[in-house]
Amino acid sequence: MELAEKRPFNEKLQHALGVNPKDAKLSLTYFTVSFIALLIGGFLGLFQGLNRAGLMELPTWFDYYQTLTTHGILLVLVFTTTFTVGYFYASLSHTLGGLLPKVRKMGWTAFGAMVLGVVLVATTVVMGNASVMYTFYPPMQASPIFYIGLVFLVVGIWIAAFGAFINVAHWRKNHKGQHIPLLAFFATGVFVMLVFGSLGVTVEVLMLIPWSLGWTETINVMLSRTLFWSFGHTLVNIWYLTAISAWYVAVPKLIGGKLFSDSLTRLVVILLVILNIPGGFHHQIVDPGITEGWKFIHVFMSLSIGFPSLMTAFAMFAMFERTGRRKGGKGLLGWFKKLPWGDVRFLAPFIAMVAFIPAGAGGIAQTNNQLNQVVHNSLWVVGHFHLTLGVTVALTFFGVAYWLIPHLSKRVLTPQMNKLGIIQTIIWTIGMLFMSGAMHFVGLLGSPRRTSYTTYGDNATALSWDPYLILLAVGGTFLIIGVVLMVYIVFNLMFFAPKGNTEFPIGEPEADAYPTPKWTERWGLTIVLLILIVAMGYVVPIMDIINVPGSPPFITW
């Protein structure tokens, strides 16, 4: 009798919380790989930083460039992609009433393809056959297995994306006239960007495979780089869009506030999807073969991506002020004191938001034709990258993990884990301040990126970089402590925290909010505009460089 009474209550509770055990297992598996990649990649980053500062000599069997390549692949591709898929599959499950069985199978298939791809890629790097960095620029040539592994990664991404599309389409079919739940709307935008953004790099990899096998003698370097950056820059904004989905949807609920505007939020998603891909050209401002006219056009396209970011900054801090004033905040900044600074689920994403102010400003500097030529091949760029990915994205992902992982694992974030999370957040922030700050300053002094430690024959200029490189290593040491703490917290929340039910925080609109326009649901129109913008930005430049003479392969390691 007891069991008979307990089962309906548990079923109601599970339905209310949106936790499907099969869906939860899928997302938790993605998160497990994500944080293992963070742990391994973090240690490789420490070794790389110590070497760059002249404090550690790496062994010949795993040198600086192998370390750099593996570090980039694990953190830039594996950590971010597996987290993004796990997070959005959990979001779709919660907001759409569970994943369809065939979509869940697609999620597992995608996971298998990604893992196989990572194994193939990592194996070639460890064996010393692919020290080409995560950007794998030709004419440096890796083993064919490296490029085949990348194919499996992309196939995995596509399978996961189409699984999400199927689930969203099924929900829309059964809820005609309704708006897609906001998190599902974000997921749709992210997966649209993943599919369309990865088309260019897929074409590139399919060109590189026969070249690496010796079936073709040369490779079009300019075309390859252009196709890569149509994906490389898009990937940055995929992480960013994933991060701001938590800012817009979860953070208001966590601090006891309301959504600023559902309509503005959906407009931000649409703008990022439409405007993003041609922004990749600002990575090629110093490249020959692309005319200055097209570079200036693409600078404008890159800067246009800043508008949805400014909209986000306004919306977030307006929401913070509204919430703080409702809680009794008086005066100009009294609302600021009312925010829950002792809750790591808020503190981590808040620091991530603040970090995006200098990160975004640095990005604008790099889209400028003249300034880009000053900083392009320097450690400034790496410092900018660590601000965007290492703080804005990573800290938001960590903040999500504090509530999503216990939600999925049916456990709770204890006060002790919350306190440890605050310590981890502070250590991580200090580490990134040292590392990214040092990289920015020493980059302005001319220190190049992508090179191991050297004094260039005790050149005075190179020796002047050493104090900054020491600070870089100090930052890396703080960061590895932060990595270990974060991985410990994640697996504690998965397997050892007390059993319980953790809410999936979904912010609610204001009572007097305007209705969201119906046109925001027209994804067909959004995709058509995306294709038109991409065509406008790429068709002519690619036609100009498609017949450029190719280069034979180089293996420099």
Q: Can you characterise this structure?
A:
GO terms for molecular function: cytochrome-c oxidase activity; heme binding. The structure is a single chain. The radius of gyration is 23 Å and the shape is globular. The chain has 18 helices and no strands. Helix content is 72%, strand content 0%. It starts with a helix and ends in a 12-residue tail after the last helix.
Number of helices: 18
Radius of gyration: 23 Å
What would the principal axes of the Cα set say about the shape? globular
> What's the CATH architecture?
Up-down Bundle
Which structural class best describes the helix and strand composition? mainly alpha
Write down the domain tally: 1
Protein name: Cytochrome C
Domain Cytochrome oxidase subunit I profile: 25-491
InterPro entries: Cyt_c_oxase-like_su1_dom, Cyt_c_oxase-like_su1_sf, Cyt_C_Oxase_1
Keywords: Electron transport, Membrane, Respiratory chain, Transmembrane, Transmembrane helix, Transport
List keywords for this structure.
557 residues, mainly alpha, Cytochrome C Oxidase, Chain A, 18 helices
Produce the secondary structure layout.
Blueprint (H helix, E strand, L loop, with lengths): L1 H16 L3 H32 L11 H32 L5 H26 L17 H31 L7 H31 L8 H34 L7 H14 L16 H13 L1 H21 L7 H4 L6 H24 L1 H7 L3 H31 L5 H30 L15 H4 L2 H30 L27 H23 L12
Helix pairs in contact: 2-3, 2-4, 2-17, 3-4, 3-5, 3-6, 3-14, 4-5, 5-6, 6-7, 6-8, 7-10, 7-12, 7-14, 8-10, 8-18, 12-14, 12-15, 14-15, 14-17, 15-17
InterPro entries: Cyt_c_oxase-like_su1_dom (IPR023616), Cyt_c_oxase-like_su1_sf (IPR036927), Cyt_C_Oxase_1 (IPR000883)
Organism: Oceanobacillus halophilus
GO molecular function: cytochrome-c oxidase activity; heme binding
